């Protein structure tokens, strides 16, 4: 579904990615793990075109999207749940969800769509008229995920969805991620909580200094003593 080949990217003169290649098959959850500064978020931001690729190729559903603009990426069905949530705090919950539909011109917030969203995210239904800035950190993260689902995306890019959350909320967020996957969505996940991410994902890649250092099935990565010591505590 997504294929990245020899991707190089960075910020101005600072190179961060040095020939990253990976793939995500339809229906998978794939995790990127690695130390801070390894290039995980940069990989996601390059896919969604928030930063340009210096070289390399990004294919989505067999189409080259390397030079597409960010709004074109969204309209092709790729939703980015950013680090830090990126919600609009001065808007209500339902207004944040309405904004997501602009990425998909065939999608509108009809009653069935709204009902489906609030069936999946009942907490948000209870707070639909509440300003997003007044939600707790966990509630804001759920809103960020729900906003991506509202866009009717096929492919979710999630950057640190458990950051700053209590253990109970972390479990809640990962249960939501698993539910989204069961509904036929494909997910590329960056997560510092590597143990939890590997528990829920099919495969994983380890990034180290902007390069793929290891890859494999999640259970194999978890069982690898060297990788466990380096990345799983």
Summarize the structure.
Helix content is 37%, strand content 27%.
Give an account of the 3D structure.
The chain is an alpha/beta fold. The protein has one domain (26-51, 69-231): P-loop containing nucleotide triphosphate hydrolases (Rossmann fold, 3-Layer(aba) Sandwich), CATH 3.40.50.300. The protein is 37% helix and 27% strand. The protein is built from 10 helices and 10 strands. Strand 9 and strand 10 (211-217) form a beta hairpin. Helix 6 (137-150) runs parallel beside helix 7 (167-182). The model has no long low-confidence stretch (mean pLDDT 88).
Sheet of most strands: 6 strands, mixed
Order of helices and strands: EEEHEEHEHHHHEHEHEEHH
Give unreliable regions as ranges.
none
CATH topology: Rossmann fold
The figure for the number of domains is: 1
The main sheet orders its strands as: 6-7-8-3-9-10
- Strand share of the residues? 25-35%
Q: Can you identify the CATH superfamily?
A: P-loop containing nucleotide triphosphate hydrolases
Number of β-strand runs: 10
What descriptors fit this protein?
alpha/beta, 233 residues, 10 strands, six-stranded mixed beta sheet, 27% strand, four-stranded antiparallel beta sheet, Rossmann fold, 37% helix
């Amino acid at each position: 579904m997504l294929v990245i080949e020899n991707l190089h990217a960075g910020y101005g003169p600072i190179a961060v990615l040095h020939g990253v290649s990976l793939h995500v098959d339809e229906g998978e959850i794939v995790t990127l793990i690695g130390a801070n500064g390894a290039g995980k978020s940069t990989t996601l931001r390059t896919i969604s075109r928030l930063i340009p690729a210096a070289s390399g190729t990004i294919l989505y559903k067999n189409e080259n999207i390397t030079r597409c603009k960010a709004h074109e990426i969204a309209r092709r069905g790729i939703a980015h749940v950013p680090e830090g949530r990126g919600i609009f705090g001065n808007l209500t919950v339902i207004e944040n969800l309405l904004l997501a539909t602009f990425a998909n011109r065939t999608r509108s917030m009809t009653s069935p769509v709204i009902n489906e969203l609030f069936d999946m995210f009942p907490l948000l239904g209870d707070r639909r008229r509440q300003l997003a800035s007044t939600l707790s950190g966990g509630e804001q993260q759920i809103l960020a995920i729900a906003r991506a689902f509202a866009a009717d995306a096929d492919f979710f890019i999630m950057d640190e969805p458990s950051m700053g959350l209590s253990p109970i909320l972390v479990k809640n967020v990962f249960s939501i991620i698993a539910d989204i996957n069961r509904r036929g969505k494909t997910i590329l996940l960056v997560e510092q909580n590597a143990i939890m991410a590997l528990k829920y994902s099919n495969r994983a890649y380890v990034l180290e200094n902007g390069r793929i250092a290891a890859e494999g099935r999640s259970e194999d990565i978890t069982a690898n003593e060297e990788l466990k010591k380096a990345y799983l505590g």
